[in-house]
From TrEMBL:
Coiled coil: none annotated. The active site is at 307, 364. The keyword Transferase applies. SUPFAM superfamilies: Citrate synthase. InterPro entries: Citrate_synth-like_lrg_a-sub (IPR016142), Citrate_synth-like_sm_a-sub (IPR016143), Citrate_synthase (IPR002020), Citrate_synthase_AS (IPR019810), Citrate_synthase_bac-typ (IPR024176), Citrate_synthase_sf (IPR036969), Citrate_synthase_typ-I (IPR010953). This is Citrate synthase. It catalyses: oxaloacetate + acetyl-CoA + H2O = citrate + CoA + H(+). GO terms for cellular component: cytoplasm. It comes from Polaribacter porphyrae.
Length: 428
């Protein structure tokens, strides 16, 4: 392939270099486009064809259903690694040695105490508040209690901010859930592993000791790993773009949480379960909902289906589907929702509407079934996604800052009124 892309605009032709990634992905480098063409820009709604950065963190091939963090396949990580090892690899580039992992965990634990005054902010929220809104607010509020996390002028500042948020975020997650349930807020224990401690913080009752189920711990580890990064998706792009103005890490993450909340992104896991429940309550007629999803006059979409990048299958969905079977089986739970989900998947996989548009189950289609089996309330599902995505957001933010990327500032094609005169209010 020629290393040059040629562009013809009217009489004039321009050349732009191609840039190639380590997996041979090719991009046209258009940084000189506007200057060379006297103001012409590209327009790409939804950034379907636009790369916003070069990144060494996550590789995915949507056509082949490949996902790798730092070169390690998602299948292998989900089977062999634990979440903290994956977080380390995402943030620092390689899987840690035991010594590195121990230090990382010790540093996280040493920063995990949240200022008690955060509880006052939490108390001010109504119990009906959606946990994603609460989590986003509390994450942003952490900045006020940790002002040194804003100016990260050295690697040391950056490291401290990273271990602080990895320590405090699970506390905020657990407090968000416990507040809704009217349970006293707690801290868990530094004697536990990272994921074990999350479970203890979330589920411990005030009047009995909490036994950690290895089945639930393994399932949560796997779910968090599967959600840990996904290159330049909506929330990650948000974190990078907010961070590109040199806003601090916590403020950037808070924006990412808001972006994740929407039902077309992380909020889909809640939407899937609500959809499956609605189908069940409506007599389990999956065909009716398939027809609604295909009807262009009906806004209903089959939640948990389709993906901007995966056009073959989502490798995470395969792992989660298997895990859902195993977890429900191990816990002795029979959930009719799982059968409805499998029925819908089966129908969609042989339906020309879904086949032609390459719509397959995504990561969110089965995850809610596992969360529910673990006893996590539906409204907390997207919060669990945020907990898993935290290391990915951190890794992407760190990469953006260390690469000294310029402030993110897209352009536009203006389609409004041309210059017109101001009309006095009495004459309008
Ligand atoms: N149900 C029915 N039809 C669908 C669905 C769906 N879930 N998803 C896409 N389509 C149809 C669209 O109507 C469109 O049809 P058309 O070509 O006849 O107009 C075609 O498939 C392409 O869809 P787009 O919306 O253009 O695809 P895009 O890449 O912009 O959107 C998205 C991807 C947002 C994930 C979409 O598939 C969707 O809304 N899915 C449901 C929500 C969901 O599960 N989101 C989670 C994504 S994974 C994640 O964020 C972790």
């Amino acid at each position: 392939m020629s290393e040059i892309a040629k562009l013809q605009i009217g009489e004039n032709s321009y050349e732009f270099p191609l840039t190639k990634g380590t997996e041979n992905e090719v991009a046209i480098d258009i940084k000189t486009l506007r200057g060379a063409t006297n103001g012409v820009i590209t327009i790409d709604r939804g950034f379907k064809n636009t790369g916003s950065c070069e990144s060494e963190i996550t590789f995915l091939d949507g056509e082949k259903g490949v996902l790798r963090y730092r070169g390690y396949s998602i299948e292998e990580l989900a089977e062999k690694a634990d979440f903290l090892e994956v977080a380390y690899a995402l943030i620092f580039g390689n899987l840690p040695t035991q010594e590195q992992l121990n230090k990382f965990h010790a540093d996280i634990k040493s920063k995990s105490v949240v200022d008690d005054d955060i509880k006052k902010i939490l108390d001010a929220f109504p119990k009906t508040a959606h946990p994603m809104g609460v989590l986003s607010s509390l994450t942003s509020a952490l900045t006020a209690f940790n002002p040194s996390s804003v100016n990260v002028d050295s690697e040391e500042d950056m490291y401290n901010s990273i271990v602080k948020i990895l320590g405090k975020f699970p506390v905020l997650v657990s407090w968000t859930m416990r507040k809704k349930q009217g349970l006293p807020l707690n801290y868990g224990s530094t004697s536990l592993g990272y994921v074990e401690n999350i479970l203890k913080m979330m589920f411990e009752q005030p009047n009995e000791s909490y036994e950690i189920s290895p089945i639930i711990k393994d399932a949560l580890d796997k779910l968090l790993i599967l959600h840990a990064d996904h290159e330049q998706n909506c929330s990650t792009s948000t974190v990078r773009i907010v961070g590109s103005s040199h806003a601090g890490l916590f403020a950037s993450l808070s924006a990412g949480i808001s972006a994740l909340w929407g039902p077309l992104h992380g909020g889909a896991n809640q939407a899937v379960l609500e959809m499956l429940e609605a189908i069940k309550a409506d007599g389990g007629d999956t065909k009716k909902y398939m027809a609604k999803a295909k009807d262009k006059n009906d806004p209903f979409r089959l939640m948990g289906f389709g993906h901007r990048v995966y056009k073959n299958f989502d490798p995470r969905a395969r792992i989660i589907k298997k895990a859902a079977d195993e977890v429900l089986n191990d816990l002795g739970i029979e959930d009719p929702i799982l059968d409805i989900a499998k029925g819908l998947e089966q129908e969609a996989l042989s339906d020309p509407y879904f086949v032609d548009r390459k719509l397959y189950p995504n990561v969110d289609f089965y995850s809610g079934i596992i969360y529910r089996a673990m006893g996590i309330p539906v409204e907390m599902f997207t919060v669990m996604f945020a907990l898993g995505r935290l290391p990915g957001w951190i890794a992407q933010w760190k990469e953006m800052r260390l690469n000294k990327e310029p402030i993110g500032r897209p352009r536009q094609v203006y389609t409004g009124e041309n210059l017109r005169s101001f009309v006095e209010i009495e004459n309008r």
